[in-house]
Structure formats: C-alpha cells, structure tokens
Amino acid sequence: MYKKILDHLNEAILLFDKDLCLIYVNPAGEILFADSAKHLVGNPIHKLFKTSQHGLFGDLLQRLTQNEPLVDRELILENIHQSITVNLSATPILGDGELSEILIELQQVDRHLRITKEEQLLAQQNTSRMLVRGLAHEIKNPLGGLRGAAQLLDLELQDPELKEYTQIIIAESDRLQDLMDKMLGPNKPAHKSLLNIHEVLERVRQLVAVEAGSNINLKTDYDPSIPELFADKNQMIQALLNIVRNAIQALQASGTIVLRTRIQRHMTIGRKLYKLVAKIEIIDNGPGIQPGLMGQIFYPMITGRAEGTGLGLSIAQSLINQHNGLIECESEPGNTVFSIFLPLMDMRDNIISNR
Question: Residue 290 is part of which domain span?
C-alpha cells in the first residue's frame, strides 16, 4: 500500500541503504533522472550524481549517522543526464536504534520555473501577435485604396515620365502589401501528416548550402531513433529555414552551424506533459545575440541587423506554436543555440495532462 502511495507522488522519492546505495526509486524519480528504476536501483549515490556533489553527500551521510535530518533548498545537482535545481529533504530511518536506510525527497524547482517562463513567453507572443495583426489589417485597407487610385491615375496619364511616378507608387504599395502579409503570419491551415524530422532538416540544409558559402561549415548530429512526428512538412521547412538563415546572417560569412536532434523525455509544454518530445537544436559559433535583444528576438520587427525585417524568428515561433511546440534561445559569444521542442505523440495520442 505504501508503495502505491509513493508511486503516485509528484516528488522524487529515493531510498538508500546505510551505505548510500539506491534500493528504491518512485516513478517521479525515474522522470527526474530520465532513466528506469531497473537501471537506477543498485547504484551507489556517487554514480547517480557527478563527482562535484561528493562533498555534499559525504556531509549528508555524516549528518544522518547522527540521526539528524537534512533540508536544503534550491540545490543545484548534476546528475548523469542534466543539471537540475531541487529542494532536498533527507530523513534517516532507524532500525534497532541504528541507521538502516535513508529516505531522500527531491522536488524539482526549475521545472516549475520553466513552466512559468514558458507561459509568460507564450502570453507575450500572443499579445504581440494580436497587436501586429490588428495594425497590419489597419494598414492594408488604405494601402489597397492607394494602389487602386495609382492604377486609375496611370491609365489617365499620357506622359511616360508621369507614368513612371505612378508605377513607383504601385510597386511600393505591392512591397508594403507583401510586408503586411508576412507580419500577419501564416494564414493557411496546416496539412499535417507523419514525417521524418531529419528529412525536413536535410531539405533545409540543401536549401541553405548554396547561400551559406564555402566559409560556413554546416554540420549534422542526428539521433536516428527519433520517431516520426505529426506535422505540416512545408511549415516545418519554413520555420527551420528561417532559424538557420538567421544563424547564417549572424556568422557574417564564416563559421560553423550544427543541426542536432535528440529525444527529450517527460517535458512540459504549455501545461501539458508529453512523454516524448523531439528536440532540434540549431547551433552557431557567431558573435552571439546582444543581451538587450534576448527577451525580444521573437517579436516582429525586432532585429539586430540594419537590413533585416525582424520577421523570420517571429514567423518561425508562430509556426512551431501551431504544432504545440516551443522555441527557446540561449546565447553567448561563440555559442548561440536555438532549441525547438516538438511533441511526439504515439499512435494513441498518449499525452499526460500536467496536474
């Protein structure tokens, strides 16, 4: 009965023997470690966490042998797969008056912080998108009238020099119309089907290979085990193409771009917990994004280049959002990483709701 209760807790529960060798881990602990209980149980604590934490668990053992519980908040732990921030609570379990087992509870803090950050990001993007679309619609209406009047005037004029002016008005109106359409974002419904994300990435790589030039090295690092995802192929190509082109422009004619794919297990996107998520990373070794722009790069018309429109990343984010996905960015000089997360649903659409 106690095992059934532990199995349904959201916090990771780890039970160690007196030598700090794991003898039980609940399902929340499996999610935290991104590994199965079969592989985790039996390992000593120093194999579950990197050597940088040896001092911590040495102190832990000393405290517990003195029958003293230990509580530590916002503790950064480096396990074999990732760095995580947790609240730790360790309790000694006595048998015949001596320490027999150690119960450790780990509550992952950064997961909740990540959910909050994602919700804020999505809310900001939705608000920005609504404002931009409203503005674009307001501009398109008088723009159509301006173009129509220029066409009528062009028909009435006989002087070729005067016609040249009306043609400029018509051409500039068409250019602004195209810009407004881009600001409005994709207006066609997605035609989703099962597709291999690596076919999409290879198509993108082929498209940018010529424009990248010989001084930009395009590398790939794919995980072939990623299953097919349910998505619109053309929209995926467009979204990834926008991000890769953004990386090419950031490199300023020389550097390296890496296209990498990995599986992410048990990830929350938009308050839904997905069993499997495809993680696509586009990495460049350029100068990085200016710190002042980092919080705004997915907003329309925001760009660090004088000749840029600032629409590429905004459109990419909109397309990925339509697939219940998310784009994140981390940047420092020499290492800029755009991470695209796309849910992978099995044939039963087995999605766990985040409670």
Answer: 193-353
